[in-house]
């Protein structure tokens, strides 16, 4: 199973692994979150964050703060770190790092396309895009009228091009189509990423398979729950599931025919790793499912740091930071809207 | 060491032990708290303890004030950024405005910021329209060129066609012309076009997307704009291309417009008519010059504002930083339940008690408070911080020691001795008075320009050199001294003090050998006789001298280390350490290597030819053998036997009794835990020591293993450390050999050619080699080796180095923290 990573890994990857582990130690801790949850205003949050690694990014913000500014600046820090790592990386690590951003790219494409469909201003949409998933001609997406055009005009130049092979139709874009496109793309992306990690071999493939399999399963469950009660047929639904992961293939068969949340639950409880997630939820409840999944994901990502000489740490770090930014956003929103009682609803402690 | 004795107020050996400290408690009425802290900050002799460690920053009492200060600091940073952008240098001479109030300042800063922001916004707006117009002008010019060239080429073709028709009539021409002529007027579609500017780096992608979106039904013309254009939106200079896109149809137009937007290409209307073009250009130029004057006026206004800000910037900045630090300190104090007073706890040196009380009193008076602050000393078992009062001369040496570890509270400070021994050991390795003088000149430059250099920012390496300028000064002086002893000036010997004591007996004797030299005068009075240099026996003679000297220096320094451990034991009243550590260690080291040193001195004095290696080795291997010709003094065999026995005894002496005695002490201590408190002064001082032994779990095996390791370390260390001092000889040898090589193989060789160019080249190479290799690299390596000898060989004999530094709350230190 194990290659001889310990022997050669540090030649190219050692420096960056050290860097990323250093970054990781800058993640907010439970104590930080406890303090943040007690904040009375966004100024308090800024003050607390100024003692953390976010300090330099927030210190020059003028006083009436907004949640968006905080989130934007925190994301900026993540982007800066990512770019720095990407600059230093050599093959195959640089490809690996690029793979991490494809997910955001898909989301951005979907965001812009949906936005133009609803006739929103392109500039406004661009501001909402995740900076990690930006590519040169992203604004041009607004020109396209259907999938084929979308592909031919813009996406053929981006790394997403190969993922499009399955969803080129001449149909006009509508919400349903776009959602299907997103999931098809995501499926292709996950499968491609999975294959890539398998090719890398060693500890990277072992750890990344685990994380990606979890991701695939989570998406399968989400697709199922979201498609309940829509006109999506069972076959179409099954097509959106990735062809790896713990649920593949038998779980997918069962998920495809599930008609309500409790059936999904029944399917999932057959798989021991997911039992604990569903056992926390009461029957018929799907609100807290996201948080439960996030918690499980964070746990798995943290475990990736327990082993050395593999690329999983980079993926894990990016994901953990994103989770942290989600947490900060939630806390800031709660504080800004005086909903402090709900602050713990969606915060996932990382340490 | 005279520098250490300053003024009459201090005890003469105040660097030997860190300042006696005590934990003080100050109860400050809330109304005078701010002023009190400010006065204490001016004084800078108290280190506050954080009494609210469990509270998060925004829950503390003065969080709001800190937020305000942070906001003001942000505004100041904004000003600084603006000032540097406008390329003003903030005026250094600050107008000392009488007591600026924080609240006033806050209002003032707010106003200034608002004004500046408004001016900037206006300026930006103007600038933007200016840039747009400038782009427009460019577009008109460049696109005009397209149309003109297109027109002229069309005309040319027409003329060509006409001439063709009138001239020769080939087979093809009529067909072609007919086609053209017929298609043109009838089927001509009205072509639309869009003109604008696109960033150059995006131009290729732009063209590609245009091509794809319209399926090739466009004509794109681009022209490079030579100078970077200021982009109206971002305000940055960007390299751009002017483009003209020709297309047909309304749908294509929509697409193209969208693509232009997506690429950030600015579109501008363009009139085909030549006359109109000229008109627009005129209009645009007129408006451009108008805008230019407006913008200039705005800039002058902004400049004036920044100037006034710049004048007081430093003062404001200092005030804000000071206030922020005061509130930070206030936040560390615990607030009384009645909310009437604040309670501060902190360490301060005992000598500062009077000054602190003074400051408290002044603060009370100045703030018109009715109640005086209460100052009292607390008794504690905590270890106080270590505080040495250093000056600019001693601080660099203390840094050398602190870099290894900060001294435990009141333990003997090796820094005192480092001041002399460090440069001296360096000089032993760097003995050359020519190099020493170079080093001296360099450091004298730093010292003479001290005032100027210390105020400005230096580079990393320069900073370090400057910080250690007094170390380097002593190093240079000592290396001149040792250089005189070795009699080397860039490796050349000089007959400085008198003529050489030796001269040739007859003409046949050459300089390359000592054979045939006879002593004609008195012994050379100081240092090595110059005749040794370049003689055949130079190396054996100097090596033997330097090796023995290294051993002597080493044994002396290690003895000093052990003696310091005795002083520590006396000071902390630790008898066990005296009897079961200091004494056996002294016996062991001196029984073996002290004896060797004595033998060396005897050998020097008597000129005996005894082999000291042999003596030392056979002292262990067969101590009872006769010494024969290696006998240096009568009774040597007996002496050696006794010394060997003593050394052997001292090993178990070091190892065994101490752990058992500690156990005994612990048991007894345990038994009388309810005994009356010891009241004598000395037991108070040794309290922390007993404490750490008493209250921790007493694990006998652990103590024993610890002692075992200690003993082994010392016994092996005695041998290896002594050997380690031989580096003094080795480096000194390397230094002198290197400089000889550079002198002989470069300078003398070049001299020998009798060619001025070769000589110049030779001198240049010699200078670079001397500066680069000998003065820089050798200095570094000798410095590091001296450092090692101090940290390892010297300090491991006594130095614990597990204390922590005293960081007083002081405004003077504020500058360094924030930068």
From TrEMBL, chain A:
SUPFAM superfamilies: V-type ATP synthase subunit C. It holds the Pfam family vATP-synt_AC39. Keywords: Hydrogen ion transport, Ion transport, Transport. It comes from the Eukaryota. It is a peripheral membrane protein. InterPro entries: ATPase_csu/dsu_sf (IPR036079), ATPase_V0-cplx_csu/dsu (IPR002843), ATPase_V0-cplx_dsu (IPR016727), V-type_ATPase_csu/dsu (IPR035067), V-type_ATPase_csu/dsu_dom_3 (IPR044911). One of its GO terms (molecular function) is proton-transporting ATPase activity, rotational mechanism. It is found in: Vacuole membrane. One of its GO terms (cellular component) is vacuolar membrane. The keyword Zinc-finger does not apply. Subunit of the integral membrane V0 complex of vacuolar ATPase. Vacuolar ATPase is responsible for acidifying a variety of intracellular compartments in eukaryotic cells, thus providing most of the energy required for transport processes in the vacuolar system. Subunit of the V0 complex of vacuolar(H+)-ATPase (V-ATPase), a multisubunit enzyme composed of a peripheral complex (V1) that hydrolyzes ATP and a membrane integral complex (V0) that translocates protons. V-ATPase is responsible for acidifying and maintaining the pH of intracellular compartments and in some cell types, is targeted to the plasma membrane, where it is responsible for acidifying the extracellular environment. V-ATPase is a heteromultimeric enzyme made up of two complexes: the ATP-hydrolytic V1 complex and the proton translocation V0 complex. This is V-type proton ATPase subunit. It comes from Olea europaea subsp. europaea. The lineage of its organism: Eukaryota, Viridiplantae, Streptophyta, Embryophyta, Tracheophyta.
From TrEMBL, chain B:
It holds the Pfam family V_ATPase_I. Residues 95-129 form a coiled coil. One of its GO terms (cellular component) is vacuolar proton-transporting V-type ATPase, V0 domain. It is found in: Membrane. GO terms for biological process: vacuolar acidification. The keyword Coiled coil applies. Belongs to the V-ATPase 116 kDa subunit family. Essential component of the vacuolar proton pump (V-ATPase), a multimeric enzyme that catalyzes the translocation of protons across the membranes. Required for assembly and activity of the V-ATPase. This is V-type proton ATPase subunit a. Keywords: Coiled coil, Hydrogen ion transport, Ion transport, Membrane, Transmembrane, Transmembrane helix, Transport. One of its GO terms (molecular function) is proton-transporting ATPase activity, rotational mechanism. Residues 158-183, 675-694 are annotated as: Disordered. The chain crosses the membrane at residues 424-448, 469-486, 551-574, 586-604, 638-656, 756-777. It is a multi-pass membrane protein. InterPro entries: V-ATPase_116kDa_su, V-type_ATPase_116kDa_su_euka.
